[in-house]
Amino acid sequence: MKFMKLGSKPDTFQADGKCIRYVTSDLATDVTINVADVKFHLHKFPLMSKCNRLQKLVMKASEKNTHEIDMVDFPGGPKAFEICAKFCYCMTVTLNAYNVVAARCAAEYLEMTEDVDKGNLIFKIEVFLNSSILRSWKDSIIVLQTTKSLMPWSEDLKIVGRCIDSIASKTSVDPANVTWSYTYNRKLSAPEKIVEGRMKYREKIESVPKDWWVEDICELDIILYKLVMTAVKSKGRMDGAIIGEALKTYTVRWLPDTVDALGSDVFSWRNKFLVQTIVGLLPLDKGVGCSCSFLLKLLKAAILVGVDDSGKDDLVQRISLKLHEASPKDLLIPARSPQTTLYNVDMVHSIVNQYMMHEKFSRDLDLGKSDVGRNDFVLGHWTLLSVGKLIDGYLEEIARDPYLSLASFIDMSQSIPEFARPVHDGLYKAIDVYLKEHTRLTKAEKKELCGLIDVKKLTMDASMHAAQNDRLPLRVVVQVLYLEQVRAAAGVKSLNNNPHDNSRFSTNTNQEWEKTAAEDCNSINKQMNQIEIKEDDSKLVKKNSKNSKSGIQLLPSRSRKIFDKLWVVGKGRGENRSSETSGSSQSPTLMIPGDSKSSGSSAKHRRHSIS
Questions:
Q1: Shortest CA distance to 26 belongs to which of 9, 40, 38, 43?
Q2: Element (H, E) at 94
Q3: How many CB atoms lie within 10 A of CB 18?
Q4: Closest CA to 544 of 567, 525, 561, 522
Q5: Which residues, listed in sequence order, are joined to residue 68 by a DSSP beta bridge?
Q6: What tens digit of pLDDT does each residue of 508-545 get?
Q7: Residue 471: φ, ψ to 5°
Q8: Rounded distance between C-alpha atoms, residue 210 and residue 182, angstroms
Q9: Where is this region: Disordered (predicted)?
Q10: DSSP 8-state assignment for residue 471
């Protein structure tokens, strides 16, 4: 820290308690100056020789036959006045970044100019400020911080502006030319780099990172911080990502991270002003700067502290451009009254809608430039697939909310297009959680909810889980088991046709079962839509499956019984596909093995359909 010593005489100021200060001298004091609650017993001549204002006040006091002078609204208080008084007595006094502004304002109040005496205090302080303080990085920050308690004097004297300009200029310096000390406690990244010989080594961390200045200015008051950041941005030399990092660091430093602390009445105004200020300082380019996770945290805080709609709308716009970077936990925005749910689902829905608007515009732009189709669009815009996974993960989180309505859940699940969800495992898992937490759903509601699942888009693991899931409607279980049976049959057929070509087995199997499943699923769906599953049907399935001799033991009773019937159908389809559809062109029928009324011949088994 820079400092400057003035005067050469020893300090003879003494204190008598907390409210009296005097100078030990052979001469009796002849004037008393009151500054706030402190009385200074001093001599007129040293003070009047350097202070023009004191000359006037002493003359007025003499006219009133009094030796007391009151200093009203003295900047810097008793400590600042004592520095000026010691300078008048030529006593040793030390100026540094913590007291120089107060001394400068006090000297201005006392009119200690060059007109009164050459080499007066104002001149000396200005030299110290310009030659030392404002050339020092940390001293400039300290001085700027001290100006807050000395407003408007420090602002009128342009100390605030000079400090801000000094700080902003230093942030724009090439990091290679930074030679002063700074604070940096965050983790530095050291990416791996591949060089000749395919050897990997840790790239040497730069001695000075580009965001070296971020932490030091976090000590500033929010009003002063806003002025500094505005100056930094106005120079146009700072990258948006670094601006975002600076805002994030300051927010983490000062904004409480708990809901109770954010909503506290004691600090509610401060927190609201802080959030509003940070939002206003975000980079103009909404697509760069801050991470999506930070923006979502800022949005949560904005909702809790009651930021106006314009600030929240700006955050929603910014988040929608980076939605693919978020995690399901990031999207869990607490709801506020009068909302009855645990989370603000409507806000997330609006973010997704904004994202889809941006994607539609981007897609239309791409389609206008070339004749690419939807598949090329999806492959080219992988962010859609990331958002699809994100929404499924978010649905799983909010499904645990006992107050979440079915309509809200369905609307949220349908907020993204089908091609953004090529696999339905995540959606199935979310629906299963919702069914587990909301046990009072009617059959119609369960049917509507499970209708969101496309069983053809479930992986093998998800299909096996669904086949054993007692929470799902029987209709869905039948579809899952039937498609698995068709998939298995298609795989066996492909293997039999090419027993020696194992390398193409997987591809042929997938193509075969997808083609067969598409035909058969349409058929079984048509039949399912025409009939109604009733309780007696479940009893019929239970009764007929008791005599089943299938070896499937991994499924629960209901699924195993249904699978027994489907397996027989699969065998029939593998042997003669035309015989299966000869009875009905609308849907496959289920063959009940072991029926007591059968004649024993496989060709004479009775046919039953699940009604």
A1: 43
A2: strand 93-96
A3: 9
A4: 561
A5: 32
A6: 444 444 444 445 445 545 544 544 444 344 443 444 44
A7: -80, -20
A8: 12
A9: 573-611
A10: T
